[in-house]
């Protein structure tokens, strides 16, 4: 029995060209997108409007749009190897759990720091301040 390999489909033609242009602009940041939009507006305003709409709805204005965003369709694509796909899924699940635990830890750390600062503030208050608070409660 021979093993069969499945490879992702190779995209050619205008779609591949558009993907390369998008990747090139993403690598250069927002300024490149804005310059492209301005040039497109000058050459043909409908194309410029299309570029602007793509920039808005494609989140090209968000901070770090190119570097911090992993495309979910590419990340969850199957490789054709079930053992590797299972390993990848387990690893992604483990990393998500670690991230959730770390986020919870940071929350507890912030709460502890806030409590310590508040306790320090209460300890540093002068007796006069405490007497004013006590008289406010009596009134």
Describe the structure.
This protein has helices at 14-28, 30-43, 45-57, 65-68, 72-75, 82-124, 127-138. With 139 residues, it is mainly α. Helix 2 (30-43) packs antiparallel against helix 3.
Quick recap of the structure?
The chain is mainly alpha-helical. It has helices spanning 14-28, 30-43, 45-57, 65-68, 72-75, 82-124, 127-138.
**How much is the average pLDDT?**
80
Please indicate the percent range of residues in DSSP E strands (runs of 2 or more): under 5%
Percentage of residues assigned to helices: over 70%
Number of helical stretches of at least 4 residues: 7
Shape: flat
Low-confidence stretches: 65-69
- Rg, nearest Å: 28 Å
Terminal Cα span: 90 Å
Describe the biggest sheet?
none
Q: What's the helix-strand series?
A: HHHHHHH
Total strand segments: 0
Helix vs. strand class: mainly alpha
Fold blueprint:
Elements: H1 14-28, H2 30-43, H3 45-57, H4 65-68, H5 72-75, H6 82-124, H7 127-138
Helix pairs in contact: 2-3
């Amino acid at each position: 029995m021979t093993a069969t390999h499945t490879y992702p489909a190779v995209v050619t033609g205008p779609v591949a060209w558009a993907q390369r242009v998008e990747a090139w602009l993403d690598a250069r940041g927002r300024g490149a997108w804005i310059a492209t939009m301005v040039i497109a507006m000058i050459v043909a305003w409908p194309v410029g409007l299309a570029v602007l709409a793509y920039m808005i709805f494609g989140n090209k204005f968000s901070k770090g749009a190119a570097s911090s965003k992993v495309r979910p369709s590419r990340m969850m694509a199957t490789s054709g190897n079930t053992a590797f796909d299972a390993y990848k899924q387990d690893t992604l699940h483990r990393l998500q759990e670690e991230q959730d635990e770390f986020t919870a830890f940071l929350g507890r750390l912030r709460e502890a720091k806030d409590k310590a600062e508040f306790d320090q503030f209460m300890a540093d208050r002068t007796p006069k301040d405490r007497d004013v608070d006590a008289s406010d409660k009596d009134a």
